[in-house]
């Protein structure tokens, strides 16, 4: 009997100890929506533009394989809500009028939206957050022109919108951590884009950190996932304007992704070469 009492007491002590162990927070791993499924709450109709599209109507072949449907877009055209140049065979999205199901409020040429879109960013002085404008101006005056030409190099940031709602960040310039830490300037952080979607006529960019499997190093989900929603104010062959809660931003198209940041990469390579030569002297 005494042995049983001792055994039960030990179990109780172990259970109590386990209850007081500190539990580390586990970050939630999220799965992104499938490429063939819309975002929750999205009422956009997707399909292919058929022959017969004009400034007044769009003819849509729905993704479900049903018969083509003709929608009136006269009002949308006048309000500049036909985004892109609709061509026969293009993948498009249509947002219908809430009271008239034969009228489209928004039409987006999704094939034209795909591609590489960039904008220009400039570096700022390291530690500018704690400096007044006068102090920043003084630091710039004290910097030689050669240093300015070396470090104040514009870079191209942006994203690559691919098929099946996949997205990739554009604008990374590889540079050694040592050189980056010694640089008198810093660039804005570059978002880690992984997917894009349309939600009721708005553009949604999804960013997050990939979570890899320990077995075969495949992506099993994403951490710190965020959804940034913007209105599409303008879309043409070479121009895109997106607006979020804070501001509007204009993008230009890059036809060759290898041309992105060509000058910035060349400068970074030159700095790395000079640093290597100095260490070997």
Brief summary of the model shown:
It contains seven helices and 16 strands.
Order of helices and strands: HEEEHEEEHEEHHEEHEEEEEEH
Q: Whole-Å distance between the termini?
A: 81 Å
Uncertain regions spanning at least 5 consecutive residues: 1-27
Shape by Cα distribution: elongated
Quote the beta fraction. Answer: 25-35%
Arithmetic mean of pLDDT:
84
Radius of gyration: 27 Å
Structural class: alpha+beta
Q: Please count the beta strands (DSSP E, at least 2 residues each).
A: 16
The major β-sheet equals: 8 strands, antiparallel
Report on this structure:
The chain has 281 residues and is an alpha+beta fold. Among the domains are: 67 residues, Nucleic acid-binding proteins (OB fold (Dihydrolipoamide Acetyltransferase, E2P), Beta Barrel), CATH 2.40.50.140; 119 residues, no CATH class. It has 7 helices and 16 strands. It has an 8-stranded antiparallel β-sheet with strand order 10-9-7-16-15-14-13-12. The chain has a 6-stranded mixed β-sheet with strand order 3-2-1-5-6-4. The protein has a two-stranded antiparallel sheet with strand order 8-11. A hairpin with a 4-residue loop joins strand 15 and strand 16. The radius of gyration is 27 Å and the shape is elongated. It starts with a helix and ends with a helix.
Labels describing this entry:
281 residues; alpha+beta; OB fold (Dihydrolipoamide Acetyltransferase, E2P); eight-stranded antiparallel sheet; 35% strand; elongated; disordered N terminus
Q: Which helices and strands occur, and which strands form pairs?
A:
Layout: H1 2-19, E1 45-49, E2 57-62, E3 69-72, H2 74-78, E4 82-83, E5 91-96, E6 104-109, H3 110-113, E7 115-121, E8 124-125, H4 133-142, H5 145-151, E9 155-161, E10 167-170, H6 177-182, E11 185-186, E12 193-199, E13 202-212, E14 219-235, E15 239-243, E16 248-254, H7 262-280
Parallel strand pairs: 4-6
Antiparallel strand pairs: 1-2, 1-5, 2-3, 5-6, 7-9, 7-16, 8-11, 9-10, 12-13, 13-14, 14-15, 15-16
Signal peptide: 1-20
Protein name: Lipoprotein
Keywords: Signal
């Amino acid at each position: 009997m005494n042995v049983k009492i001792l055994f039960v007491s030990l179990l109780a002590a172990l259970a109590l100890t386990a209850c007081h162990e500190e539990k580390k927070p586990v970050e939630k791993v999220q799965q992104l929506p499938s490429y063939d499924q819309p975002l929750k709450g999205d009422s956009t109709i997707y399909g292919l533009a058929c022959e017969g599209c004009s400034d007044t109507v769009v003819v849509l072949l729905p993704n479900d394989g049903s018969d083509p449907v003709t929608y009136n877009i006269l009002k949308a055209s006048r309000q500049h809500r036909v985004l892109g140049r609709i061509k026969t065979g293009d993948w498009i999205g249509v947002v219908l009028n809430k009271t008239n199901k034969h009228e489209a409020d928004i039409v987006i040429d999704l094939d034209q939206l795909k591609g590489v879109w960039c904008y220009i960013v400039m570096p700022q002085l390291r530690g500018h957050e704690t400096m007044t404008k006068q102090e920043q101006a003084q630091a710039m005056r004290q910097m030689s022109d050669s240093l300015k030409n070396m470090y104040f190099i514009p870079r191209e940031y942006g994203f690559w919108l691919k098929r099946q709602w996949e997205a990739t960040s554009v604008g990374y310039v590889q540079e050694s951590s040592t050189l980056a830490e010694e640089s008198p300037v810093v660039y804005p952080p570059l978002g880690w884009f992984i997917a894009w979607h349309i939600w009721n006529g708005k553009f949604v960019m999804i960013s997050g950190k990939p979570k890899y499997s320990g077995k075969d190093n495949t992506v099993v989900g994403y951490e710190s996932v965020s959804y940034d929603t913007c209105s599409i104010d303008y879309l043409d062959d070479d121009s895109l304007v997106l607006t979020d809660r804070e501001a509007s931003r204009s993008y230009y198209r890059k036809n060759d992704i290898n041309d992105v940041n060509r000058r910035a990469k060349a400068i970074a390579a030159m700095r790395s070469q000079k640093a290597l030569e100095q260490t070997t002297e």
